[in-house]
Design brief:
0% strand
């Protein structure tokens, strides 16, 4: 029961960390989406009546990339929703176990629910951390670029 409650709290904590950095992440993702969309438009404009299979496969890959970037990442939606509800269900089942309700079934399923929920949480957490690191890295690169430009403009004056 405590593990379920702590797990649900952990999911909320990770989600709140992600929310603090979501604007730069979504801004970066929107820029990549727009660039992919422009590449797709350029490639479709280049298509002639007789197009090679290789060119069509490249166009299809670009289209899939644009489609993938159009939606929010799964690890920021279902990857956080499912573990939260999984840990909540785990807490409720543990409470039901104490009352003796379907104790045999709960004994068999409690560990499975915990392991599956934790695995989904770890996988989505990994991808969320990967996105946060990429966003922070981009912010740092932009700050370095700005600092370099400021320094160059100061030395030219």
């Amino acid at each position: 029961m405590v593990a379920g409650i702590a797990g649900a709290g952990l999911v909320l904590a990770v989600y709140s960390i992600v929310l603090t950095r979501v604007h730069p992440f979504l801004h970066q993702r929107a820029q990549v989406w727009w660039q992919s969309l422009l590449r797709l438009r350029r490639r479709t404009e280049q298509i002639e009546a007789q197009t090679s299979t290789e060119a069509m496969e490249g166009l299809e890959r670009e289209f899939r990339n644009v489609r993938t970037l159009h939606d929010l990442p799964v690890h920021l939606t279902w990857g956080l929703i499912l573990p939260f509800f999984g840990y909540c269900a785990l807490s409720l089942l543990a409470g039901a176990w104490f009352t003796g309700w379907n104790k045999a079934i709960i004994d068999k399923q409690l560990l499975n629910i915990f392991l599956i929920t934790t695995a989904v949480f770890l996988i989505s957490g990994f991808f969320a951390i990967k996105d946060l690191i990429a966003t922070i890295d981009n912010d740092y690169r932009a700050m370095r670029q700005t600092a370099t430009e400021n320094q160059q403009s100061n030395t030219q004056q």
